[in-house]
Amino acid sequence: MMSILGSSDLYVEQEANVWSAFKNWLIANPSCLPELVHGMLSQVRLHLLPPQFIRDEVLVFDLVSSNIQCRNLIDDAILRHCNGETSRFFSKIRETFS
């Protein structure tokens, strides 16, 4: 699973499809080591998931949300969204007052 998730040849229309495959694999393999879960989740490009999807799908999935290493990855993705929105916000302010 790790090699598939990390493959540069993997093409998906939406990163949510990768999340779903990862989640389904974990549901079928619930005794997976936490380090492996983190390693696989690090291959999912969480920052490409919409913030609402992260909130409604990722954060409620206990096998990742209860893993502190996974939570760090999730938090990083959320921060990337916040920083992107902040940058766009300040760009609009600069344009307004220029």
Explain how this protein is built.
The model has no long low-confidence stretch (mean pLDDT 84). The chain has helices spanning 2-5, 15-28, 34-41, 51-58, 62-65, 68-97. The chain is globular. The chain has 6 helices and no strands. With 98 residues, it is mainly alpha-helical.
Task: Set out the fold topology.
Blueprint: H1 2-5, H2 15-28, H3 34-41, H4 51-58, H5 62-65, H6 68-97
Give a quick set of tags describing it.
98 residues; 6 helices
Beta fraction: under 5%
Which value, in Å, is the CA radius of gyration? 16 Å
* Residue runs with pLDDT of under 50 for 5 or more positions: none
Helix content: 55-70%
Overall form: globular
Overall mean pLDDT:
84
Please state the structural category: mainly alpha
Query: Helix and strand succession?
Result: HHHHHH
Given the structure, what is the number of helices? 6
**Biggest sheet, in brief?**
none
Summarize the structure.
The protein is mostly helical and 98 residues long. Helices cover 69% and strands 0% of the residues.
